[in-house]
Amino acid sequence: MSTDWAPTVTPRPPINRARGTGDAAPNSCTRSDSTENDFTQLKARYCSEGDVSGSSAKSFLIIGGIFVTSIGALALVYLSFPNLGENERHVLKLPTTMDDAKALGKVLSKYTDTHYYQVLVAYFSTYVFLQSFAIPGSIFLSILSGFLFPFPTALFFVCLSSASGASFCYLLSYLVGRRIVWRHFPKRAAEWSLHVQRNREHLLNYMIFLRITPFLPNWFINVTAPVISVPLAPFFFGTFLGVAPPSFVAIKAGITIHQLTSSSETVTFNSFLVMATLAILSLLPVIFKDRLRKKFD
What we know:
single chain; mainly alpha; 14 helices; 66% helix
């Protein structure tokens, strides 16, 4: 017996309005297109007047309140962080470039021995926060983990952080995201829903496939999945397993960069060979994306 949890979507009959009677124009969930029967049928199934009508302001206010609360919780985590020197505080920020990640990694690596759990909790909390609100920058945190932790620990926590943050984003979208998705991404959501329906019997494998390949942005998957009734269990575990290959590449890159920037390490041909190999591996999903697409279509 399946124990997957998923939002319940109850189809409702379409609402017909006579043209020229002064009624409001149909919204994006009732607009028909004779050349896209599957698209309109899915919109009729997943959308209703009660689901998507009205302003999205309330949804954004709820998300904003949760965002501010999360910022406060993140601030409490950093208040427990060890005191940094004057020349170290300016690098304690979210890395947005490789240089930022290297500078932050050099500082934090000094504290992993004496304040291991504080560093780990701060790292995990920041990663989850970025994933929960679809904020760019998690790739630099994945690279940073190669500076700070042994490879098995880094890979596990990057995968766990990605899956946890994506699941929080999933739950936020389940609470307030239906109106936003069907107002702003109706066609794209319906097209992806067709693929989900075709792969419903092996949804875990399909989620792993989506996380590895660059077909859909991760933020779009996180926001749209609950709207089109993707269960949470395959979503979480598919994300956990699917982000492992690209995370492997990022973490190994972080380890190699740490070796290259350490004064105690000598720049060797092997170091550059590792970097070149990782760069090639990161391109494989792009190179073979058409073949992979055919497998799941």
